[in-house]
Amino acid sequence: MSQLLPESFYEQSTLSLSKSLLGKHLVHESPEGKTVGRIVETEAYLGVIDQAAHSFNGRRTKRTEVMFGPPGVIYTYVMHTHCLINIVSNVVDVPEAVLIRAIEPVEGVELMRKRRNKQGVLLTNGPGKLTKAMGITMDAYGSIITEPPIYIVDGPTPTDIQVGPRIGIDNSGPAKEYPYRFWITNNKYVSR
């Protein structure tokens, strides 16, 4: 198995972490089996100064509480009917996080197909799709990403990364144009 990423890895700035997570492997060891996906797309959310972030203006609620904690904690929330997984970044009391937006399946592909009833890129080319395929639920909220059952291990650093605006945040004023989305160039599992 590849090297488990240490807690210190998540202490970098949120924009830096968004890029650094590309190429790493997200792992979930569930009772049904193990699934692994290479992270191919992320989005950064810069908390207090980012109108698209749940913690904009220091908004501290039951839902956002873990964002104010230490980096490397999992922040899950439901959008529409989908659970989305984020990793808290930066430092304590700076409520920022990175959304894992898409993965390329590596291991446990049959289990992913069973959970999603989909094939090919439709399996994990979006944040709600990947969590369903990997069996990640709201139960992960507040867990630490550096230990099972959900964790991230090292993987090859991509040589070509693209940067652009985030997706699906049209009602967030000028923040909808911020270049806080990162993806591996020409990877077919990128959401758009």
From TrEMBL:
Pfam families (alphabetical): Pur_DNA_glyco
The protein, known as: Putative 3-methyladenine DNA glycosylase
Record PANTHER family: DNA-3-METHYLADENINE GLYCOSYLASE (PTHR10429)
Record's keyword annotation contains Hydrolase: yes
EC class name: hydrolase
Family: Belongs to the DNA glycosylase MPG family.
Superkingdom of the organism of origin: Bacteria
Gene3D superfamilies noted in UniProt: Methylpurine-DNA glycosylase (MPG)
Documented EC number(s): 3.2.2.-
InterPro entries: Formyl_transferase-like_C_sf, MPG, MPG_sf
Key words of the record: DNA damage, DNA repair, Glycosidase, Hydrolase
UniProt-listed SUPFAM superfamilies: FMT C-terminal domain-like
CDD domains noted in UniProt: AAG
MF-aspect GO terms: hydrolase activity, acting on glycosyl bonds
NCBIfam families the record matches: 3mg, PRK00802.1-2
